[in-house]
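Why predict the complex rather than its parts? Because the way molecules touch one another can change local conformation, and only a joint prediction can capture that. The input here totals 378 residues.
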Amino acid sequence: MADLPSGATTQLKTFALKSGATVCGVADAAAFNARAPEKQRPDDLLPGARSVVVVGGAQPREGDWAATSPWVMQTMGTTERIQGVGRRLAQYIESEFGYYALYVPPGTASGDTPFLSLMLAAELAGLGSKSLAGPVLNRDHGFMYWSAVITTAPFEADAAEENPACPAPACREMWDRDRTTPCLATCPGDNGGCLSGKLENGRAVRTFYDAARCNTRVHTHWVGGFQKVLEETLNEPDRDKRKMLLYGDFFTRSLWAITYSSTNIAQCFECMRVCPAAHGLKEMK
Amino acid sequence: MSVFKLDPEVYKRYKDEVLKLCNSFQKIDQPGLSDKQIAERLGLDERTVTEIRCVAERDCYSLDEWEKAIEFKRKATLEWSALALKRPDLKPE
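Output of the joint prediction:
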């Protein structure tokens, strides 16, 4: 922290929490090198990067999780709110400390590949650990959305979390009893779902993940779904049938999702909905 | 002048290998290779690998799987509502 004033990291984190983050952590930019491919590392985006500041928050509320329509979470599950905090942090780092600060764009660099894995950033910043289902879970707050800022400022890095939130005690009990967990049971890889795994010495071990199928669920009414219906429409010779595809609910909902949201949205929450570590940490009446 | 168009024959030939090596589909405890690294391994140029990967990401499942996703989510959501709200009447048939 040669050039940063004393207490700069604490000052930054306090600002992040005041700006609406639920949690804030710092990862050493070099820590990505061992776990992220080329072009998805902080230094690839901002040469000279020293730190990655990560904020998490904007969790769905229990009412959202309990809603009877999947389209509630599909609409509310957005990175948009935490992105605003990330943008403010980038501005703050440059104006307050005088270092370059690059807000990590929420979109993709090419195809479905992100500029930087926000989940990896959250893990390296000590804000959570990867669950058996995939998403990074924070021990105190469970499932949340992430935003990150790459900076040349040498903030103090946090240590990675040692005790993962997954598996939750209830999942260990379920595993001992039924040899499955809530997430594995709801989306089983051997029965049309995306996940397979096990608990080994109290730790979650994933053994199979069908990312392509997961993509059809997480982004049902999104870019992939739009492309699929468009392809089907272009291949359809009958004019009336083309109209049914283009004016139908699937295509309409996809257009609403794509055009209404300028940011990343998730559209499948079923492994997280049943996860005791992801939410439900406070009992509701 | 046009946008870069991938040769469909090149796509068919390398699709599986690119998908296997890339980072789009997470492996267990093993990061995938960058497009540049895959290009070097397969003797292709990086831009071609990027295009193969982008098309292949979308080409794994047919539109039917998207429709199945809708039904999966409808059912799973109602099952959770019934459990969380202690309303067995909400359970899907």
